[in-house]
Input
Amino acid sequence: MFEMPSFVQILDFIGTFAFAISGIRLASAKSFDWFGAYVVGLATAIGGGTIRDLLLDVTPAWMQDPMYLLCTASAMLFVILFRQILIHLNNTFFLFDTIGLALFTVVGATKSIDLGYSFWVAIIMGSITGAAGGVLRDVFINEIPLIFRKEIYAMACVIGGIAYWLCSLMGMEAYLAQIICGVTVFVVRIIAVKYEVTLPILKGEPE
Output
């Protein structure tokens, strides 16, 4: 019997598509072949969720549902068909990466809560789900991972997770808390990049 996907599952698939595009887009900029670009896109899309599920001691989601592989294939086709348009849009990578970051933070936090973990664990798992795939992507394309640079990236996930927790404390409906969590991550990331808000740099030696 066909079952309608839940709200979180829909967010998960949209996030998978968005993150896969961000990975494939960067791989194309490095002149990867189609297979290499697909692998980078897949690693970006499922990397964070795989680490999360292993830590939560459950079977990784992509091993139970081929939709993650199909979403990545759809993202690959999308990039191939609209390559010229995407190339001319300089903020394409940033937009899809930010969408994926926001949606995956919601998915990771929600899954942790559903499994009975505390909110502090959910915040960490949301951050891992959102940011870890990007780390794998950057390693695969031989770049310093974005999470280790000055830009606000994983911290946006943490702030979104805290917003989720506060909404829960106020007794807000789960889907509203999830929407606020995702919007918070998205807005924090946008503001941080637009206004060049960064974390302090840890310096090894005094000036």
Remarks:
- The mean pLDDT is 91.
- The radius of gyration is 17 Å.
